[in-house]
Amino acid sequence: MAKYFIFMKKEILICSDCNYDNLVAEIYIDDKYIALVSYDNNGNFFVETPTVKLINEDMVTHKVDYNVFIELLEEAKNSLK
Question: How far, in Å, CA of 44 to CA of 56, rounded?
Fold first, then answer.
């Protein structure tokens, strides 16, 4: 099972979003949206995951290997520092 995750396409896009005061990091696996990482004006990081109502279900995934998710969250956070 772990070998499957080695071949996943992982991507973190750093961008500006008018809904947020600071830069955001969007996390994708195999071109499917996983989560958004950003920080507030006090420097506290937060994670937002997509809701079914707000996004096309074909463009997101709701099931991710725990270790891969934690790795990508850390990478996204570090890319915003």
Answer: 29
